[in-house]
């Protein structure tokens, strides 16, 4: 279709190009590792400090257990989408001017309201407040690079940390929006409010976090807004999920690690002594009934789109 | 990374083609293709199953961003080049038209028509049904025709 725009004599890449690509890729990987290490270090410090203070036996383990019917998406890149977009699907939101950033608005847990279509885009709604969590001592945070290149989708890491030293939690986790996207809300300066939806960044997982453990999932951060790069500047990014079907226990988890489990215990640390593994305990009365999905959101983190 | 080495020439060719179609400048297109391949290589393990469309998408984003920055710096709609590109205006219009498309529609149009990927390949790369790709492609093509005119957007 655009053949007339082609280079009539395209170059062939030589060994020098391959070498330069390798060097640049190594630098990109290094930068990403550094950014990730910074986030991981801060998260680990919180967990270790709390656990060490209580038991003196820090441990940090990531358990990522996609449900059998779900496949986790490739992380950190432009990703496939599970379904076709249509009315109501979050894609991205054109910045809407408002006098001041709107506060997050609690929404029904299972069926976010339909959002008005706008020239092929849909308006992302605000995130819920992050007060209600699957278990006490659990924190949900978003670890993101400080800067995003607007020419490329960015990445961030969703981290669930169990800050207790004796309680474990197992629960289902899915995207905040019912159709399978993790939603963020980016608020810029000057009252600009942009909704950014992370399509296919997270699907549904069975999360297991024992005492002092972490669960991590890398997610995508689109840096455009309805086909147009978001304006350069600083934004506050937050992410929302929903949880359900919580089981809690005292001591080590009553499950064996699956093939997806990745141990990230720092060298020189030891796992806590096995404590009597309790059977799943009944949920406190304040917990939602099985099958009910409860929204949960991170606090916003400040990032710069450049 | 043997897979990457084996695919390198083909990925470079595809990325360069997309970049040149958008930019019309050989040096710029080479830079963009190299950058797209570096980003692909940096995430090879993840993107290997759909490396070609992924690299083309990156090349498109990088190319459009470079063009926009160049215009911002020069203040011109079409920056002057050492050798005037006969299709410079068409390329600028194409960049602008692509930028105006919704994200998913742009992805499909870029991969289908700018990178010349098959509908099946686009569907696999984006995780969409072939029918959905067709629908996006049709809508995107109609939008491009509206912005660029029937003559420049052939069938």
Provide a concise account of the structure shown.
With 306 residues, chain A is of the alpha+beta class. Chain A has one helix spanning 15-54; strands at residues 61-62, 65-66, 96-97, 117-118, 121-122, 138-144, 147-148, 154-162, 167-175, 181-188, 192-199, 205-209, 214-221, 224-225, 228-229, 233-237, 239-250, 262-263, 294-297, 301-305. With 155 residues, chain B is mainly alpha-helical.
Mean pLDDT of chain A: 57
Helix content of chain A: 10-25%
Question: How many beta-strand elements of chain A?
Answer: 20
N to C succession of SSEs of chain A: HEEEEEEEEEEEEEEEEEEEE
* Nearest-integer average pLDDT of chain B: 81
Overall 3D geometry of chain A?
elongated
Approximately what portion of the residues of chain A adopt beta-strand conformation?
A: 25-35%
The multimeric state of the shown protein is heterodimer
Q: In which range does the helix fraction of chain B lie? A: over 70%
Instruction: Write down the Rg of chain A.
Output: 21 Å
How many DSSP H or I helices of chain B? 8
Largest sheet report of chain B: none
| SSE pattern of chain B | HHHHHHHH
The number of strands of chain B is 0
């Amino acid at each position: 279709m655009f053949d007339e725009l082609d280079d009539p004599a395209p170059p062939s890449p030589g060994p020098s190009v391959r070498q330069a690509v390798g060097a640049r890729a190594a630098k990109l990987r290094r930068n990403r590792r550094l950014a990730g290490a910074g986030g991981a270090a801060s998260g680990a410090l919180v967990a270790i400090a709390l656990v060490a203070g209580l038991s003196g036996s820090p441990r940090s383990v990531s358990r990522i257990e996609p449900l059998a019917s779900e496949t986790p998406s490739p992380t950190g890149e432009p990703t496939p989408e599970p379904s076709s977009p249509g009315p109501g699907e979050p894609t991205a939101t054109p910045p809407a001017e408002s006098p001041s950033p709107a506060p997050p608005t609690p929404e029904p847990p299972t069926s976010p309201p339909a959002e008005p279509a706008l020239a092929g885009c849909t308006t992302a709604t605000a995130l819920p407040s992050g007060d209600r969590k699957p278990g006490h001592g659990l924190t949900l945070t978003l670890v993101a690079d400080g800067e995003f290149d607007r020419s490329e989708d960015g990445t961030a890491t969703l981290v669930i940390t169990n800050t207790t030293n004796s309680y474990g939690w197992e629960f289902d986790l899915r995207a905040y929006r019912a159709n399978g996207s993790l939603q963020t809300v980016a608020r810029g300066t000057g009252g600009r409010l942009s909704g950014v939806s992370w399509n296919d960044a997270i699907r549904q997982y069975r999360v297991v976090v024992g005492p002092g453990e972490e669960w991590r999932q890398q997610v995508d951060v689109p840096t455009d807004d309805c086909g147009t790069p978001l304006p350069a500047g600083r934004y506050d990014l937050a992410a929302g999920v929903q949880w359900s079907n919580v089981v809690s226990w005292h001591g080590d988890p009553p499950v064996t690690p699956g093939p997806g489990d990745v141990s990230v215990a720092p060298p020189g640390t030891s796992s806590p002594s096995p404590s009597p593994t309790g059977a799943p305990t009944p949920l406190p009365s304040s917990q939602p009934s099985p099958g009910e999905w409860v929204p949960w959101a991170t606090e916003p983190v400040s990032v710069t789109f450049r | 990374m043997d897979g990457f080495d084996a695919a390198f020439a083909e990925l470079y060719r595809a990325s360069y083609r997309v970049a040149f179609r958008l930019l019309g400048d050989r040096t710029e297109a080479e830079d963009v293709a190299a950058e797209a391949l570096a980003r692909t290589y940096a995430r090879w393990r993840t993107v290997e199953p759909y490396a070609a469309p992924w690299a083309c998408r990156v090349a498109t984003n990088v190319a459009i961003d470079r063009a926009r920055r160049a215009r911002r710096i020069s203040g011109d709609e079409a920056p002057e080049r050492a050798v005037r590109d006969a299709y410079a205006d068409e390329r600028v219009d194409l960049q602008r038209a692509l930028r105006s498309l919704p994200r998913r529609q742009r992805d499909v149009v870029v991969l289908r028509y700018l990178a010349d990927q098959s509908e099946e390949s686009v569907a696999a790369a984006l995780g969409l049904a072939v029918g959905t790709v067709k629908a996006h492609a049709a809508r995107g093509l109609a939008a491009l025709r509206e912005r660029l005119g029937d003559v420049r957007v052939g069938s």
